[in-house]
Amino acid sequence: MHYFPLFADLKSRPVLVVGGGSVAARKVNLLLQANAEIRIVAQKLNLELTTLEAQGKVFWLAKHFSAEQLKSVFLVIAATNDEQLNQRVFRLAESQHKLVNVVDDQPHCSFIFPSIIDRGSLQVAISSAGRAPVLARLLREKLEALLPQHLGKIAEISGKWRDKVKQRLHSVTERRRFWETLFSGRFVNLVKNQQIELAEEELARQLENDYQGGVVSLVGAGPGDAGLLTLKGLQEIQQADVVLYDALVSDEILGLIRRDADRIFVGKRAQRQYVAQEDTNQLLVKLARQGKRVVRLKGGDPFVFGRGGEELETLVENRIPFSVVPGITAGIGATAYAGIPLTHRDYAQSAVFVTGHRKADASDIEWQTLARSHQTLVIYMGTLKASFIAEQLQQHGRDSNTPLAVISQGTQLTQTTLVGRLKNLAELAKNAPTPALIVVGEVVELHHKLAWFGEDKQRQKRPHFTLDSLAIGQVA
Ligand code: SAH
């Protein structure tokens, strides 16, 4: 082991910083987070440090360094641009057995600063022993993405309950089992959703050995490209015991689900097995009652033509806790990848998302409003009724030459964009692979200029986002 990792309590402990420039300021800011008492030795302070000094957060000890200043401090940091001075600080600190760091000069460091992931009481420090700081930083970024913000809160609550748990559970094994069960169950979800009181009730109940039920998370998977999944969505599908997904969820995203989680297809594609909405609702309730962590994964955003609301109503009726993770809806994702801005100062001042598929007939649709010019119309589920839609829009005043695009399998490697005019909508829609989104409006003109995610141009280049590429061993 090249360096021994330690977590030091620097609260109110004096730290000497030699240097008053931006490098010193960076370290000072870091140390202030740990509430260290900062003493600065520098000819002059930069603006940032001057401000901190004026606020009483740091103490400007002297203009010149002397061995005397090392006496009562715990750590020493040399961050001047005078190499000789830095080395003198190092030598004198060493001779007084003080931990010392000359910034960016590893041979003159008896300790180094790790990359830090800070989740309050829970911290992760990473070091490459100074060999590959960029690698350590990359790893930190990956871990930042994987470690949710609420971990700190979990650690904090656990700390608060530790003594009580000790009193009630006498053996170490019992206690270990208790915490393991707690950290892989409903408690964590409650903390994540900021339902702290409920979380503590849950902890208390588990301590009394009560049965606890599961939770459901309704997660938007986005339109296909796994890179568009939110961090929270990724965390949910990696923690789930069971994932219910529908036909619009891409294989790339299914590949990110925790490997030993159960997957249940509840799609509504004609060619595949058909699952009635009511059955899905009931299945969610049943699985949650079994104490499982259930993710209901839906294409795009669950609240945009996704029936997410209906599923949640059933959960409310059955008093099952839930949360919602929004996703990028096809109207945002597919248009972005097709180089079609939904609004543009010269072309459209508003955008309307509408479904082309209605439960009953479409007679209550306000075609007049939809047919307005300088408005972008984004039509979901519209290809089957394309000729009717085109007819109505033209009848209600939209110019038959209005530019139009049909984007198929948006954001996926197979994305295609067919462009034409409103009068040709039926024809274009007929040839479009599904799922397909219809975009009507002047903004479609911009596609010719702004298309970037090309079937040919970009397909080869796009990095493939898999769980494996997040794996620690493959960062390099
Ligand atoms: N909740 C989803 C929409 C579900 S309705 C969302 O927010 O995106 C299903 C319709 O969405 C499809 O008929 C199609 O019109 C559109 N759609 C979904 N994914 C798409 C994609 N990747 N490319 C183009 N259209 C898509």
UniProtKB/TrEMBL annotation:
A single GO BP: methylation
Positions bearing Phosphoserine: 128
Domain of life: Bacteria
Binding positions for S-adenosyl-L-methionine per the UniProt entry: 223, 299-301, 304, 329-330, 381, 410
Positions of region (Uroporphyrinogen-III C-methyltransferase): 214-476
Alphabetized SUPFAM superfamilies for the sequence: NAD(P)-binding Rossmann-fold domains (SSF51735), Siroheme synthase middle domains-like (SSF75615), Tetrapyrrole methylase (SSF53790)
Pathways per UniProt: Cofactor biosynthesis; adenosylcobalamin biosynthesis; precorrin-2 from uroporphyrinogen III: step 1/1; Porphyrin-containing compound metabolism; siroheme biosynthesis; sirohydrochlorin from precorrin-2: step 1/1; Cofactor biosynthesis; adenosylcobalamin biosynthesis; sirohydrochlorin from precorrin-2: step 1/1; Porphyrin-containing compound metabolism; siroheme biosynthesis; precorrin-2 from uroporphyrinogen III: step 1/1
GO molecular function annotation: uroporphyrin-III C-methyltransferase activity
Pfam families: CysG_dimeriser, NAD_binding_7, Sirohm_synth_M, TP_methylase
PROSITE patterns in alphabetical order: SUMT_1 (PS00839), SUMT_2 (PS00840)
Keyword Ubl conjugation found: no
Record's keyword annotation contains Cytoplasm: no
Residue ranges occupied by any Sirohaem synthase dimerisation domain in the UniProt entry: 150-207
Keywords, in A-Z order: Cobalamin biosynthesis, Lyase, Methyltransferase, Multifunctional enzyme, NAD, Oxidoreductase, Phosphoprotein, Porphyrin biosynthesis, S-adenosyl-L-methionine, Transferase
Family designation: Belongs to the precorrin methyltransferase family. In the C-terminal section; belongs to the precorrin methyltransferase family.
Protein task: Then it catalyzes the NAD-dependent ring dehydrogenation of precorrin-2 to yield sirohydrochlorin. Finally, it catalyzes the ferrochelation of sirohydrochlorin to yield siroheme.
Protein name in UniProt: Siroheme synthase
Taxonomic source organism: Aggregatibacter aphrophilus
Taxonomic placement: Bacteria, Pseudomonadati, Pseudomonadota, Gammaproteobacteria, Pasteurellales
Gene that encodes it: cobA
